[in-house]
TrEMBL record:
Source organism superkingdom: Bacteria
Gene3D superfamilies: alpha/beta hydrolase
Gene source species: Rhodococcoides trifolii
Domain Serine aminopeptidase S33: 50-258
InterPro entries tied to this protein: AB_hydrolase_fold, Hydrolase_4, MAG_DAG_Lipase
Protein name (record): Serine aminopeptidase S33 domain-containing protein
UniProt xrefs under Pfam families: Hydrolase_4
Length: 348
């Protein structure tokens, strides 16, 4: 397989993108496409056979150039995938981020993996995912690992999760009675909008020009997020249930999260040092469900996207990533599963 249609990306020098046709959308919204982005800086270290592929979350797309630069400085070839109907991949007439089954994303994840392996000749790939992507990717890895040869045969060696969405935040009733309601409405009226959304607390915290310091396209990542559809949240809750039953992703993982959650209906300075989107206690509770070896690290002062934190917690997040990569690169578990083990870090 040869890929020759890379074009300049919106991130500028060193970034290129490739459109991945996916055919008819299973949810009936025309033809779906995904977009693969690669980072090729002029001074990239000589190819080392190390590759990372990043997957974003809900109301998100890849724009974190500083993250790509950090991986490149460690000798990794960096790629990022904008899933169907997300960011670069959103087409006219499509509902942003809408799907009725998280397994539909298997198509672009598998295709992106093939393209990256062909582009690099590498059999040493680490996946990295944020928030909803941090649910989508482990579910896919679990299915992939059940196939002959598992994740090892696919060349996947590790996983880094950044504040993965492992459970529905809110009161217990939302996760019990509420989930039953979501299941019924999501099946009958999948494109109906879930009421009560539209908070811009997190967006104001991170976005340059409001209170934050990060620049991005607000058509692709609006401050208050895209409307949540019942069919989509039904798919997420089914994904949560599968995770809670236990997965076997076949590779060691690093899970980074903020140390505290602070939900707020409006911006206050305290939200700059907390996760305002997810309940970090739920991330801690369910992290052991991935199977294999998991390292869970709370990062004090971090935001929901720990790599969009303010200066000091951002430095701590990168230090924790580097520490894990030092272990990962020197450990035999970088090429062979090291058995089931959970490492819980209470300090950061």
């Amino acid at each position: 397989m040869s890929v020759t249609t890379w074009t300049p990306d919106v991130l500028g020098d060193g970034y290129e993108q490739l459109t991945i046709p996916l055919g008819p959308d299973p949810d009936g919204e025309g033809n779906a496409e995904a977009t693969l982005v690669r980072f090729r800086p002029d001074r990239t270290p000589a190819p080392s056979g190390k590759v990372v592929l990043y997957v974003h979350g809900f109301t998100d797309y890849f724009f974190q150039a500083h993250l790509a630069e950090h991986w490149a400085a460690r000798g990794y070839r960096f790629y990022a995938l904008d899933l169907r109907k997300c960011g670069r991949s959103l087409r006219a007439g499509q509902t942003p981020h809408f799907t009725t089954d998280l397994a539909f994303y298997d198509q672009e994840l598998g295709r992106a993996l093939e393209i990256v392996r062909d582009d690099t000749g590498s059999a040493e790939i680490v996946f990295m995912a944020h928030s909803t992507g941090g649910l989508i990717v482990p579910l896919w890895l679990d299915r992939l690992n059940a196939a002959p040869g598992g994740t090892a045969a696919a060349g996947i060696r590790g996983l880094v999760l950044n504040s993965p969405w492992f459970d529905l935040q809110g009161p217990p009733a939302i996760r019990s009675v509420g989930t039953s309601f979501i299941d019924v409405i999501g099946k009958a009226r999948p494109t109906a909008t879930v009421p009560g959304g539209g908070l811009d607390t997190y967006g104001v915290s991170i976005a340059a020009g409001s209170k934050g310091e990060w620049n991005y396209d607000m058509d692709w990542k609006p401050l208050a997020g895209f409307p949540i559809k019942f069919g989509w949240i039904r798919a997420v809750r089914r994904g949560h249930a599968a995770l809670h039953r236990g997965l076997d992703i076949g590779v060691p993982s690093l899970i980074l999260r903020s140390k505290v959650t602070r939900f707020s209906k409006k911006y206050v300075p305290e939200v700059d040092a907390a996760d305002t989107v997810l309940d970090v206690r739920q991330i801690a509770r369910w992290a052991g469900c991935l199977g294999d070896r998991s390292t869970i690290v709370p990062v004090e002062g971090a935001r929901h996207d720990v790599f969009l934190s303010t200066k000091e917690p951002l430095a701590r997040a990168f230090a924790e990533l580097d520490s894990w990569l030092d272990w990962f690169e020197s450990s035999s578990t970088a090429t062979h599963s090291g058995g089931e083990h959970a490492e819980i870090r209470a300090d950061a």
